[in-house]
Amino acid sequence: MGHQASFHAPHGGADFLGWRRTRAGGTEIVYDDGVARRLVWRADVRPGHEERLSDALQVAVGALRVLPTLYDELRKRSIAIEAVGR
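RE: above sequence
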C-alpha cells in the first residue's frame, strides 16, 4: 500500500521497470528498454513486502546497467524471480 510501482531511468534512457499484480494475486516485474526488449518475470514477494521490491527497482533503474543491477538488488533482498515472457 502506497509503494511506487513503476520507475523510469533518470539518466535520459528510456528504461522502464515496474511491478504489477496478476489476476491470480501474484507479482510480476516488467522491464522495457524503450526500443526492442521487454522482459517479464514472476517474483516471489510475500504480501506486505512490496516495499523491498520497490526499493530494488528504484536502485536498478537509476543505474547505467539496469538489468545486472536489478539481478544484484533482487538477490540482496532474497527475492526470487522466474522469467515468464518477452
